[in-house]
Design goal:
Structural class of chain A: mainly alpha
Oligomer: heterodimer
Strand content of chain B: under 5%
Radius of gyration of chain A: 28 Å
Distance between the termini of chain B: 46 Å
Number of domains of chain A: 2
Mean pLDDT of chain B: 93
Helix content of chain A: 55-70%
Order of helices and strands of chain A: EHHHH
Helix content of chain B: 55-70%
Shape of chain A: flat
Number of strands of chain A: 1
Shape of chain B: globular
Low-confidence stretches of chain A: none
Mean pLDDT of chain A: 81
Largest sheet of chain B: none
Number of helices of chain A: 4
Structural class of chain B: mainly alpha
Low-confidence stretches of chain B: none
Number of helices of chain B: 11
Order of helices and strands of chain B: HHHHEHHHHHHH
Strand content of chain A: under 5%
Largest sheet of chain A: none
Radius of gyration of chain B: 20 Å
Chain lengths: 121, 335
């Protein structure tokens, strides 16, 4: 016994795969969430204000003001990871490159040459 | 018309049962038990023993316990998005398997590797959005770290996964950059010349590190970082919402190593999906289990990187080799 493969165009395959994503998503939601909530969830409701609080490990629940912006965390992690490049680019961009027309000309030349080589001019 | 309907029914059964939803669920239960047993052995413990033979049903019991709990939301948490987004992420990761020969009736098209990458990225972005749907200072820290990790590990994974498809297209242009046909030709990727073997070796190393990063396995588990930022992206979750989040994360731990096995470790070799599906499937499963055990042991042995250390490691040992392998694979194809 072997396998069979159904070939189709990429555009059709995108549509078909989206159909299957929706199908499996529906099955997941129905079997793992809706069904369990219908069978068990409704019997388990109990009223306590604590469950509305943020799980802040026993401390006072913080307000939205103390939330750390995700983008700030992300950029700080990335800038620390490549601190040498980050510093060089930041300082360089501020004092050297941005002020320097030769830099733009060289950059343009490099781009033109790269495009030229890639297209086989 | 009748043949078309039969094919559609077969595909729906594949998506919902094998190698789709039910298969992944069974694999999650088995692999989580295996992972816990392997980790326990490393720490001179016994691991799960009580539920089922040798404790094999413990992950199922844990999963059912979470699912059957009350669905609790705190005041800042989004109401429906976490459930919807995790359901769609499960759909996306399971649909990837329909593009592989693990599906007795598979789907393919030229350049379908791009669709596969899109679906894999969908899962990673869903996990980030899932975390963002339940704000908390620690959750935000976790999501920020996770996004930073994704910016380096996802491009590395994509570049590394492109390499076998390009090498396969060089050997046999009829593969047309399709995941399905690349896997069907996986055994020949290493044996078709020195350059191809070298390119595959470099890409295999890069892909392995990239997979560890995408799955946030130690030493790259700083987005969760238990004990440091509580549980990162999962801090605020409990009950069925946590169960769904776990389902996505664990499904990723099955599909990504399985793709790695099929692309880099010769697919079903020494058997072939075209000749004997059962033996080929068993071969893939055994190789997967070996890779999964290695990942579980790495997770148990390794300490955690700091976020900047982890990202620097990814740039050095995942992005750079993956890009070099990609450039050489393209050069070998065009020259």
């Amino acid at each position: 016994m072997g396998v069979a493969a159904i070939g189709m165009g990429p555009d059709v395959l995108v549509l078909v795969s989206f159909g299957f994503v929706f199908l499996v998503a529906g099955a997941t939601w129905f079997m793992l969430y809706w069904l369990f909530q219908r069978v068990y969830g409704r019997k388990l409701k109990y009223e306590t204000p604590v469950k509305e609080d943020l799980a802040f490990c026993g401390m006072e629940p913080p307000s939205e003001d103390v939330m750390i912006p995700v983008t700030e965390v992300m950029t700080s992690v990335l800038s620390r990871a490549v601190s040498r490049w980050y510093r060089a680019i930041k300082e360089g961009a501020a004092v050297r490159f941005v002020q320097d027309w030769y830099f733009y000309l060289i950059a343009m030349l490099v781009i033109l040459l790269s495009v030229g080589v890639a297209l086989g001019w | 018309m009748e043949a078309w309907i039969n094919t559609l029914i077969t595909l729906v059964i594949e998506a919902l049962i094998f190698p789709g939803f039910m298969f992944i669920m069974g694999m999650i239960i088995f692999t989580q038990w295996w992972w816990r047993k392997a980790a326990a052995r490393m720490a001179y413990r016994r691991g799960p023993t009580r539920t089922g033979p040798a404790g094999i049903l413990q992950p199922l019991a844990d999963f059912l316990k979470l699912l059957a709990k009350e669905d609790i939301r705190h005041s800042l948490m989004l109401r429906r998005l976490p459930v919807l987004i995790t359901s769609f992420a499960v759909g996306a990761i399971i649909t990837v398997l329909l593009f592989t020969p693990l599906s007795p009736v598979a789907l393919w098209s030229p350049y379908d590797i791009v669709i596969v990458m899109y679906l894999l990225l969908w899962v990673a972005v869903s996990i980030a959005l899932y975390g963002l749907s339940a704000p908390n200072p620690y959750t935000n820290l976790g999501v920020g770290r996770y996004l930073a990790l994704l910016t380096v590990s996802e491009p590395a994974l994509f570049a590394a996964f492109l390499v076998p498809t390009i090498v396969a297209a060089g050997i046999n242009p009829a593969t047309q950059y399709s995941l399905y046909w690349t896997i069907m030709n996986a055994a020949s990727l290493w044996t078709s010349g020195l350059v191809n073997a070298a390119v595959m070796a470099v890409a295999a190393v890069a892909a392995f590190f990239a997979i560890l990063g995408v799955m946030t396995v130690k030493p790259f588990d700083f987005p969760e970082a238990e004990g440091e930022i509580y549980w990162g992206m999962f801090t605020e979750y409990g009950g069925p919402r946590l169960a769904l989040g776990f389902f996505v994360a664990f499904a990723e731990k099955i599909v990504l190593p399985m793709l790695y096995v099929m692309l880099y470790l010769g697919g079903a070799a020494p058997f072939s999906f075209a000749d004997n599906y059962v033996l080929a499937f068993v071969a893939v499963l055994l190789k997967y289990l070996a890779v999964f055990t290695l990942i579980a042991l790495i997770d148990t042995m390794m300490p955690r990187y700091r976020p900047d250390q982890g990202i620097r490691f990814m740039i050095k040992y995942a992005i750079t080799p993956a890009t070099i392998a990609l450039i050489f694979a393209v050069a070998a194809l065009t020259l």
